[in-house]
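anyone seen this seq b4? input:
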Amino acid sequence: MTTTVDINDVGMTAFFIAWFRDAERTRRDSLFYDPYSRWFVPDEVKPAARRFAELCPEFDDLIRCRLLFFRELVRAEVTKGTGQIVSVGSGFDTRPAIFQTDGVTFFDVDQPAVIKYKRETLERIGLRPWPSLPCDYLDVNLPEKLQEVGFDPDLPSLFIWEGNTMYLPRNLIFGFLTQLATQLPAFTIAFDYMSERVIDGTSGVASVTRAFDYFYDRFAPFKTGFDDPAVFESNTPLKIADSGRMEDIGARHAPRFAERLEPLAGLYHYCILTK
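predicted toks r here
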């Protein structure tokens, strides 16, 4: 696919993760199927994404585990009747199109350039865009701003915060979680985070170091990692509902992941907090 989009304006990482979502369509060991992400993968993004995957195939698999984790979480929340699902720093997440269900409202929050390009692309392929909030979510009162596009703060909601924490300083991570906790009566938020060993290059896995040196040179460097989820309880009013390692998500789906990802055990995690 060719495109005239200014990738630097939108941000390379949004396109990068769209490539990973789309690549699942053609894998022999596919974990899921996403029919829409291919429309968000310009040709000029593909070589860089493929190169990252080649440099560290195991981390390629961990990203796949991450995508499966959030996909299955959204599926479960839709099934149990959660009425509002908010994707914060949404990028080109297409789960609202995949899991659209009567009685469930999806919301996107991201930079104006991302939201604009995403809405235009959805309309071009015949999909009705879901409610979206174009803003830097760290610079606004997010619970208040979301109400402008139809969010009901009194309804229990799920917030998906995928692929964000590693790019933010610790104080902004805890500050954002605390803002939600002090303004919303009840909600759940799910997010992913890297180990500090990935951030500072001390993982001891040569392929991980090579892959992220490549990534940092071309995209955005990571800033923050964690090695103990207890910090999220000690620095915010929220409680941990679940946490774990990304490789375990893959292993639950297919036992082959347990052995394949053992060298990277403990480098990538998920966490679910609730109020």
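Residues 7-274 form a domain with the Rossmann fold fold (CATH 3.40.50.150). Strands lie at 84-88, 105-110, 132-134, 157-161, 187-194, 239-245, 268-274. kinda curious what u guys think
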